[in-house]
Structure to design on (304 residues):
């Protein structure tokens, strides 16, 4: 394969970038270049062992991004705020997205696949937004929207936006973290459906968009593999584990006391009013076959 067959995957040691790199490597029709900050990190070494070319780069360093993009036909893009014990740092995300878009354009990349979050662009219509109820969420959503709008208008020959739903491996859904080993304590109402997606299926969707850019050009895909309430999730997990799990919808304070990060707990209350836009049938309409939550949970138990 020539250098122009290569695909650059950023955030390659994370869940979405790693899943995209693995999906492309498994498909085998293109060489895969993964950008990491630390090539000795276990996830980076695993991708190298699987056949990926590992390059060092930093989303804050435009020169390193141009070097990483050089000769690539496509780029997988993802940025995220930084979560720490002191809070969430949103300050770099928007500029990092711009740095990568500009580097890809400068190096003649034809296909750009960017992943953000389900609901981006519709967040301003959420109940209470205009009144300032979600002011603490504004920077998160507006940063995501700014990068999505930049990708749409940048001038790439082909571009795709993936807007994945809640990850199936979200710690909230892991029985290992349930209160007293059996009680899922959440701030989300028990009657609210939640769109769910396996990180592996985000990678497969990104790989599909990269390998068939004409079909996915201009597509903004709200990506989900299942749509369940938390009691339905608990019922599935109970059946798989042979235990009885229950769900308790509590306050933010109760969730924090049980170990949930305060910013995460407050953010989850947004799900009580936000419209559910990601649906499994949307993915299937593009030939994708995302896993149901039950299939994903069963597979995970069989492989761990």
């Amino acid at each position: 394969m020539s250098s122009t067959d290569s695909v650059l995957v950023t955030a390659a040691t994370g869940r979405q970038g790693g899943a995209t790199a693995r999906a492309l490597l498994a498909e085998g029709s293109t060489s895969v270049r993964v950008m990491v900050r630390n090539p000795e990190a276990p996830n980076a070494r695993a991708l190298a062992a699987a056949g990926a070319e590992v390059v060092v780069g930093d989303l804050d360093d435009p020169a390193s991004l141009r070097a990483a993009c050089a000769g690539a036909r496509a780029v997988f893009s993802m940025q995220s705020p930084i979560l720490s014990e002191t809070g969430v740092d949103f300050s770099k995300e928007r500029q990092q997205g711009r740095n990568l878009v500009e580097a890809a354009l400068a190096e003649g990349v034809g296909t750009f696949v960017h992943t953000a979050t389900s609901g981006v662009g519709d967040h301003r219509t959420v109940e209470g937004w205009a009144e300032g109820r979600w002011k603490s969420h504004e920077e998160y959503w507006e940063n995501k929207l700014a990068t999505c709008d930049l990708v749409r208008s940048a001038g790439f020959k082909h571009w795709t936006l993936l807007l994945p739903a809640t990850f199936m491996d979200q710690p909230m859904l892991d029985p290992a973290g349930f209160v007293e080993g059996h009680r899922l304590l959440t701030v989300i109402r028990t009657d609210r459906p939640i769109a769910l997606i396996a990180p592996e299926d985000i990678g497969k969707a990104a790989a599909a968009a990269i390998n068939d850019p004409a079909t996915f050009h201009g597509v903004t895909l709200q990506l989900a593999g299942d749509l369940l309430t938390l009691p339905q999730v608990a019922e599935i997990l109970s059946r798989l584990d042979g235990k009885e799990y229950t769900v308790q919808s509590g306050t933010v304070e109760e969730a924090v006391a049980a170990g949930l990060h305060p910013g995460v707990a407050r953010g989850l209350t947004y799900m009580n009013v936000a419209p559910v836009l990601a649906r499994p049938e949307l993915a299937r309409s593009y030939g994708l076959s995302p896993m149901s939550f039950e299939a994903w949970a069963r597979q995970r138990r069989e492989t761990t």
Notes: The chain has a mean pLDDT of 95.
